Amino acid sequence: MGVGVGAKRPSPMVIVALRSKSGRRSASKDSEISQLFTSYKLRDIEFPNRVFVSPVSQYSSDDGVPGKWHLVHLGSRAVGGAGMVMTEATAINARGRITTVCAGIWNDEQAEAWKPITSFITENGSVPCVQLAHAGRKGSQERPWLGGGFIRPEDGGWQTVGASAEPYDEGWGTPDELTESDIDALVDDWRAAALRSLEAGFKVVEIHLAHGFLGHSFLSPLSNHREDSYGGNADNRMRFPLRIVDSVREAWPEKLPLLVRISATDWVEGSGWDLPDAVKFSKVLKEHGVDLVDCSSGGVSPRQQIAMEPGYQVPFADSVRSEADVPTAAVGLITEARHAEDVLESGKADVIFLGRELLRNPYWPLHAAIGLGDDTPWPHQYIRSKPVS
Length: 389
Ligand SMILES: Cc1cc2nc3c(=O)[nH]c(=O)nc-3n(C[C@H](O)[C@H](O)[C@H](O)COP(=O)(O)O)c2cc1C
Hints:
Layout: H1 12-22, E1 40-42, E2 45-47, E3 51-53, H2 68-79, E4 84-91, H3 108-123, E5 127-133, E6 161-162, E7 176-177, H4 180-199, E8 204-209, H5 214-219, H6 234-251, E9 258-263, H7 275-287, E10 292-296, H8 314-324, E11 328-331, H9 337-345, E12 351-354, H10 356-360, H11 364-371
The protein binds flavin mononucleotide (FMN).
Flavin mononucleotide (FMN) binds next to strand 4 and helix 10.
């Protein structure tokens, strides 16, 4: 589809008027112009456009409770025009955090603290999504700006847990291998976190099964050496992640979307989890009620060799979308509006996630729309700063 050629575009005045009436960006435009700024629907949720905020850990919570930083940080991305605003990896229990200052949603105080954030995002025309996570053997780390690295339990960290009792790398803690009853308890924690997310005002949940965190550490043969029904062949390795998906799907209302982030490959040549496994897993995820697969990669092994270039993970979103017949998100080194638009126009993904580019510029969506010759509503408060074409 061409960008802006011959298409009818509402004037900014019309957009402002329509936005006032409906409070929703998507109702404000004839969306035949760019794919990126065409609204998108999953179940009963309509996203005003297809620029989604990728989860980015902020390491700024106190006992898992999000605060003013989160309100301003996530709120700015809603004001900046993103179609969906996702939280950072939000732990389903205390040991599921990456660092002592990661956000969580395992108690009522945390759920309560998310409420002003979700309502601000919603009031400003976007859709709030929580990424639920458990860091597994990659937990108990120092925050990056203090040098990162594993913190031992005796130094204020905690005993980590994993698929097998093997550390991620030298210098990391050896996790406790989860017993079957630990797994049952964790499934309950995921369900409780989903219920609290609903109570907190989130409209979308993403389950984090990527980056070497707990779910991924069960999926990958590089980190799962169990001898029970949760280890061994691929079906067994998928068993715990699928129990998580089922418990969240059961708790999460039918009318609201559920996303899953996967690592489509471990980037370890000749061994490890790879794209064919990701396609197979995505087919099963769809059968289990997952609405969109967010295709990331890597993180399970320090031996990974990643071929980094702009859009380097787009081929994963493309293969999963066409071979598993499920909607996908493309993410990773996408920074230009034209590139994002091309990915959508060529049918390689359904939505685009932006991580670092939206850290650099929370107003990227507002400017991207203009760059594509399209339009998207600006906040009333900023309308006098909108470039006139
Ligand atoms: C500082 C930082 C924190 C991140 N935190 C998370 C996270 O909490 N959960 C997650 O799934 N990915 C996380 N990511 C990965 C991003 O969501 C994204 O997939 C990655 O940065 C590639 O996209 P980009 O090139 O647009 O930044 C993080 C990335 C960065 C740079």
